[in-house]
């Protein structure tokens, strides 16, 4: 009878240990699945961020290249404009010298007209300045 009790106790212990081990294995598998899912999610986030970073870098590079190209075009245009201005100044000086030699009285009238226009512009600026000062003082 003792052997039977011992055998039953052994079987009950074995079954209890088996159930405990099976529950432990299931909980470990569940934890492993959860961890794998978390790792996969983090991997996908990392991959997405890597792609976005690469895209942002490409956009930055292309915008820098475009801005560099525009800067070169602007510098070229400025150089051409400077050359054109020099040519216009030289042409104006030559024309001015020609008029001064050929029509000195017209040249003098032109200079007087320019001076009169400058005087009018100065007077208008002074008048506006005075008006602004009086209006701001009134406030």
What does the model show?
This protein has about 140 residues and is an all-alpha fold. Helices cover about 100% and strands about 0% of the residues. It has two helices and no strands. The chain has helices at about 1-100, 105-139. Helix 1 crosses helix 2.
What would the keywords be for this entry?
single chain; 139 residues; mainly alpha; 98% helix; rod-shaped
- Computed Rg: 47 Å
Report the average pLDDT across residues.
92
Q: Main sheet, how many strands, which sense, barrel?
A: none
- Quickly count the helices: 2
Percent in strands: under 5%
SSE order and pairing:
Elements: H1 2-102, H2 104-138
Helix pairs in contact: 1-2
Write a brief caption for the model.
The chain is mainly α and 139 residues long.
């Amino acid at each position: 009878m003792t052997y039977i009790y011992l055998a039953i106790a052994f079987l009950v212990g074995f079954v209890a240990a088996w159930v405990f081990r099976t529950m432990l294995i299931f909980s470990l598998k569940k934890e492993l699945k959860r961890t794998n899912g978390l790792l996969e999610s983090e991997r996908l986030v990392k991959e997405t961020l890597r792609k976005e970073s690469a895209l942002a870098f490409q956009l930055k590079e292309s915008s820098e290249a475009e801005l560099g190209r525009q800067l070169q075009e602007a510098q070229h245009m400025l150089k051409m404009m400077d050359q054109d201005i020099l040519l216009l100044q030289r042409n104006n000086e030559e024309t001015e010298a020609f008029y001064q030699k050929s029509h000195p009285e017209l040249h003098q009238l032109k200079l007087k007209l320019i001076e009169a226009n400058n005087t009018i512009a100065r007077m208008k600026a002074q008048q506006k300045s005075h008006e602004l000062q009086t209006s701001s003082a009134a406030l």
